[in-house]
Amino acid sequence: MDSNGSRPLEDLVHWNGELSELITNARRGEPSSTVTFRRGHAVAAAEKVVAGLASPGHLVDWAQAVHFEDRVDVEEGHEGLLTQFLVEVSTPELFEPVTHEVCQRWLRLLQTSPASAPEAAAHG
């Protein structure tokens, strides 16, 4: 894996740093690099809001950046759950405003979802 090309994307999905800088750097990254968005990334992002380390608005911005980035793949076996998380959080105007309570509900869902459940069947 090209350490220069994928690093900005890795930092974005891990939310390692200042969000606007992460988004800018990811957009400038190597066009052929890809990363996998995993359940742990979603958990960590929601935990940032619950812990008061980020605002719900920042979570929306982060989810939009991750969701609309073509070079981010979703973890196999969790596609349904993780895609639903990204879609709902990135478009609160279509679902519900992102609040601390919404983040706590997502945390419960993400942490209790069986590791190998066929997501599409559960949410389809």
Biggest sheet details: 2 strands, parallel
Output mean pLDDT.
88
Helical/strand content category:
mainly alpha
What percent of residues are in strands? under 5%
Which value, in Å, is the CA radius of gyration?
14 Å
Per the principal axes of the C-alpha atoms, what is the gross shape?
globular
Binned, the helix content reads 55-70%
Name the helix and strand elements from N-terminus to C-terminus, one letter apiece.
Answer: HHEHHEHHH
Instruction: Tell me the total number of β-strands.
Output: 2
Measure the end-to-end span. 34 Å
Poorly predicted residue ranges: 116-124
Order of strands side by side in the largest beta sheet? 1-2
Number of helices: 7
Polypeptide structure, described:
The structure is a single chain. The protein is mainly α and 124 residues long. The protein is 61% helix and 5% strand. The protein has helices at 3-14, 19-28, 39-50, 56-67, 79-90, 100-112, 119-123; strands at 35-37, 72-74. A two-stranded parallel ribbon has the order 1-2. Mean pLDDT is 88; it is low at 116-124.
